[in-house]
């Protein structure tokens, strides 16, 4: 950091300060350098974040679509089975009614 860089006061929760301190220590940087590095990384490749989110959303939509397709196929089969059963019962009833008593 050069002395020409702007100074900026910031209020942050103590927990976040502790996390930044730990990350700065782990990466052998000052807290300011850690914050600047993290901020710059978010501006570096916004399309990467968008692509990642988009891919995640597509995976969810695909999973839901697959599940919905399976459920619709199951429901369609049950409806067909019930129609066949109803038709069979109606045919059986017609036969019973047509028999002489």
Concise account of the structure shown:
The protein is mainly alpha-helical and 101 residues long.
Task: Indicate the topology.
Elements: H1 14-26, H2 31-44, H3 46-98
Helix pairs in contact: 1-2
Top keywords for this entry?
101 residues, mainly alpha
Query: Count the strands?
Result: 0
Largest sheet: none
Strand content: under 5%
Pick out the low-confidence regions. Answer: none
Tell me the span between the first and last alpha carbons: 105 Å
Please give the share of residues in helix: over 70%
Number of helices: 3
Question: Mean pLDDT, nearest integer?
Answer: 83
Shape from CA axes? Answer: rod-shaped
The rounded Rg comes to 33 Å
User: Structural class of the secondary structure composition?
Assistant: mainly alpha
Order of helices and strands: HHH
């Amino acid at each position: 950091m050069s002395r020409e860089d702007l100074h900026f006061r910031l209020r942050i929760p103590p927990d976040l300060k502790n996390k930044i301190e730990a990350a700065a220590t782990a990466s052998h940087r000052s807290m300011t350098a850690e914050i600047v590095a993290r901020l710059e990384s978010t501006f570096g490749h916004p399309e990467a974040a968008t692509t990642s989110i988009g891919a995640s959303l597509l995976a969810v939509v695909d999973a839901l679509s697959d599940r919905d397709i399976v459920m619709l196929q199951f429901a369609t089969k049950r409806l067909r089975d019930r129609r066949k059963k109803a038709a069979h019962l109606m045919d059986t009833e017609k036969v019973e009614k047509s028999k002489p008593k």
